[in-house]
Amino acid sequence: MVKKPVPDATRRSEKSRRAIYDAALALVAEVGYPKTTIEGIAARAGVGKQTIYRWWPSKADVLLEAFLDLGEQAARQAGQVPYEIPDTGDLAADLKAVLRATVDELLDPRFEAPSRALAAEGLVNEQLSREFVAKLLEPQLQLYVNRLRAAQATGAVRPDVDPRIALELFVSPLAQRWLQRTAPITYAYTDTLVDYALYGLAPR
Amino acid sequence: MVKKPVPDATRRSEKSRRAIYDAALALVAEVGYPKTTIEGIAARAGVGKQTIYRWWPSKADVLLEAFLDLGEQAARQAGQVPYEIPDTGDLAADLKAVLRATVDELLDPRFEAPSRALAAEGLVNEQLSREFVAKLLEPQLQLYVNRLRAAQATGAVRPDVDPRIALELFVSPLAQRWLQRTAPITYAYTDTLVDYALYGLAPR
Amino acid sequence: MVKKPVPDATRRSEKSRRAIYDAALALVAEVGYPKTTIEGIAARAGVGKQTIYRWWPSKADVLLEAFLDLGEQAARQAGQVPYEIPDTGDLAADLKAVLRATVDELLDPRFEAPSRALAAEGLVNEQLSREFVAKLLEPQLQLYVNRLRAAQATGAVRPDVDPRIALELFVSPLAQRWLQRTAPITYAYTDTLVDYALYGLAPR
Amino acid sequence: MVKKPVPDATRRSEKSRRAIYDAALALVAEVGYPKTTIEGIAARAGVGKQTIYRWWPSKADVLLEAFLDLGEQAARQAGQVPYEIPDTGDLAADLKAVLRATVDELLDPRFEAPSRALAAEGLVNEQLSREFVAKLLEPQLQLYVNRLRAAQATGAVRPDVDPRIALELFVSPLAQRWLQRTAPITYAYTDTLVDYALYGLAPR
DNA sequence: TTCTAATCGAGACGGTACGTCGGGTCTTATT
DNA sequence: AATAAGACCCGACGTACCGTCTCGATTAGAA
Question: Which top-level group of life is the source organism from (chains A, B, C, D) (predicted)?
């Protein structure tokens, strides 16, 4: 077992890290993930290659961190770090609103390129996939779980329903359409998904 | 614009094509998609690189064709080329049976590696994605549309439901779990999906 | 020992041969010897590659034959097939005249490219070199031997001189300058060569 | 016009350069120039191809430098870097001695293969030829010029003779025989050349 | 505030694979 | 049977990046 000397994070250059994030996101957006190279990121960031290899094991990890950082920044700007699905008492309306916001985000070009790339890499790279799911996907899905639990408490959803599965009825179709481009994603579509799904979850 | 002279398909070597398919599938299964190289496929198939470049524009296209061919072969062996979802009159039972078979297929290692790889490539390569969807995915989904239409005719499903969207309620979650490894896929899971979804599609 | 079936020369296409000669000479002149390829010759001659491989073992042999043919043609046109060095009785004048003609030929672009190419190939390919020397060079040199022998008979050259060596005193320097581009070749230069050399060959 | 970034010569690996020289010379000697490939040199030298392409534009240039280096090494070993043709007062004897040494060198297999290859390449590649002549050939010939000038000073050679041309009378024939294999090269032959040539250069 | 050790920008290095070119063989249909 | 055409296997080309490895130059924490 070869020990790689752990670099001293306290002396790390914040400027370089930012520049690397920016370069990685910009390149993925401009030339696509496969044509984005470590060398290209380093050159664009005005950084030595070694500085990248010192802190990240692969370009996928660079992009994942850059993307997480982008998300944090966006959340911080919106001032809504502790994100929640609203609870107006009308479950269908709340879900439709959230899904419409998700549609907007999925169509935002700033997000599209990197998240597609990460999803693609994850399909084939199990380790990255786990990290992606744990850090990004599951926290999002947990919000739906919370909201559905609340709905069960008020009787809007049958108590025997597993919320972790139930949420997939409307979340997965949207994800699928987006990832595989099987069909366009619109507000009308997500509204319909919620309608179809909730029929089945509501008590008789 | 330089025109590449179109090769004469009638003189194409069938033996080479088969060998390339086999090599591509074997390598993807053995070393994974990213480490599968055109050079490796050529070497394993006992074929010149040029023979690959003559007929396919990229390794993704090689793999797509190889996979389509694999599917055709499998179907031909099973003697069930005009595939259909059974119609016993019990929609829930029929869907559960089909989804269980799908689970088996998704867990079959012969299919897993190449289809993951193609899905991953499709996320980032729109042209390939379209071909993948058109040649493989949509034909499969159409079978569900047909079965749901039949269910609407017998009154088992509400007539105002769009079958193309309805089918996503149980198909997409399964696909999602498989692709993103968010959770294990089991018979119990698919059965539950069908139950949840059909509640919502059945008449009141 | 694998026997290569000897092709039937009587059925050979004269038209193809001519086309191949023309194409080979043209290409060597236009793009240079290294960039002249068998494939290129075949394409330009409107001939299948196999037709070349059937009759010649290598591109050097094609060019050698093409060049020999070119020489024969030129000689036939000039109507002087049985070539001779003139014998006016004045050895120096005769040699100067012949060398001046040689200078002209060496500077003729039609001859320069192919003969350079053949010389180059010969340096590294002994078999070709022997053929080149035997078919082209030695016959030429023999003419000088004859003329020098005649000069010895008239007493213009010492009888103990070996004509085969003596001729090299003026022929080789010219060849060398041309081949290696060490210095320009002119009439004045060849005249000087003859003067210097004959001093040494003349009786005291 | 794309500018290729000039590599930083101060950081060049001396070990790699030596290994490349050795590999190039060894391969040319073992398999011949045409079968010597950049890939083969790199593999034999244990070096990446790019390291060759970074510093030399072609395999001919690699070989030329390797050969120049070989010559320098040999000269340094012999401790006779400022090489001179001896001047014992007997011009004929001095020239014969030097030419005999040249014959030895031309027949030394370590020198034969690469110098033939370079000569061949030079015939067809003018740029290389100029470099070869300037760096290797002319310095050698200049030694003869010097010796002949000295001979003119002592009256051993006629004052109106151009030494640069005179030297070709014995040097070029030897070179020619060696390059074109028209006849074997021996001490007797070079002695004869000197005799024939000096007759013509000596005063009456 | 100076010293000093780690990080940094830069890029040369040994490699692997790319996509292309051409060599020489073989097959097919045409003459 | 020779031919034009060109697919085939193969080896080398010159290029792009990989991940590792030096090099000064800089820079931040401990002295």
Answer: Bacteria
One domain, residues A100 and A172: yes
Q: Kindly report the CATH number assigned to the domain that includes residue D132.
A: 1.10.357.10
- pLDDT at residue B2 in the model: 60
Which chain B residues are closer than 8 Å to A168 by Cβ? 172-173, 176-177, 193
- CA angle at A145 for the pair A142 and A150, rounded to the nearest 5°: 130
Is B75 within a domain?
no
Answer yes or no: do D132 and D174 share one domain.
Answer: yes
Specify whether D72 is located in the same domain as D111. Answer: no
Task: List all residues 6 or more positions away from C115 whose beta carbon is below 8 Å from its beta carbon.
Answer: C67
Task: State, as a whole number of angstroms, the distance between the CA of A11 and the C1' of F28.
Answer: 7
Q: What is the pLDDT of residue C80?
A: 62
Task: Say if the Cβ atoms of C120 and D117 lie within 8 Å.
Answer: no
Q: Compute chain C's Rg from CA coordinates.
A: 20
Q: Establish if A8 belongs to a structural domain.
A: no
B58: CB within 7 A of chain E nucleic strand: yes
Range of the domain at C63: 1-82
**What pLDDT does A21 receive?**
98
CB proximity list for D134: less than 8 A, separation 6 or greater:
none
Of A120, A165, A192, the CB nearest to B193: A165
Instruction: For residue D126, say whether its CB is under 7 Å from any atom of strand E.
Output: no
Partner B contacted by A138 (CB < 8 A) = yes
Digit-coded pLDDT (tens) for D82-129: 678 899 989 999 999 999 999 999 998 888 999 999 999 999 999 999
C180 and C125 fall within a common domain: yes
pLDDT at C3 over 50: no
D135-144 confidence digits (pLDDT tens): 989 999 999 9
Name the residue of chain A whose CA is nearest to B195's CA: A200
Three-state secondary-structure class, residue A63: helix
Could you report the per-residue pLDDT of B98-124, keeping only the tens digit for each? 999 999 999 988 889 999 999 999 999
Distance from CA of B166 to the nearest CA of A (A): 7
What value does the mean pLDDT take over residues C58-85? 84
Q: Looking at the structure, tell me whether residues D90 and D182 fall in a common domain.
A: yes
**A124 contacts B34 by C-beta, under 8 angstroms:** yes
Q: Is the pLDDT of residue B82 over 70?
A: no
Residue type, B196: Y
Q: Is the CB of C121 inside 8 Å of chain D's CB atoms?
A: yes
Domain end, chosen from D37, D58, D82, is at: D82
- Band (pLDDT 50/70/90 cuts) for residue C2 is very low
The CATH code of the domain that includes A57 is: 1.10.10.60
C85 touches C94 (CB < 8 A): yes
**Over the stretch B174-191, which tens digit does the pLDDT of each residue have?**
999 999 998 999 999 999
Domain tally, chain B? 2
Structure tokens at B138: 């949509």
Same domain, D115 and D45: no
**Could you tell me if B55 and B97 lie in one domain?**
no
Residues found in chain C: 204
| B122 in A contact zone (CB under 8 Å) | yes
* Residue among C124, C168, C183 minimizing CB distance to D176: C168
User: CB–CB of C169 and D196 under 8 A?
Assistant: yes
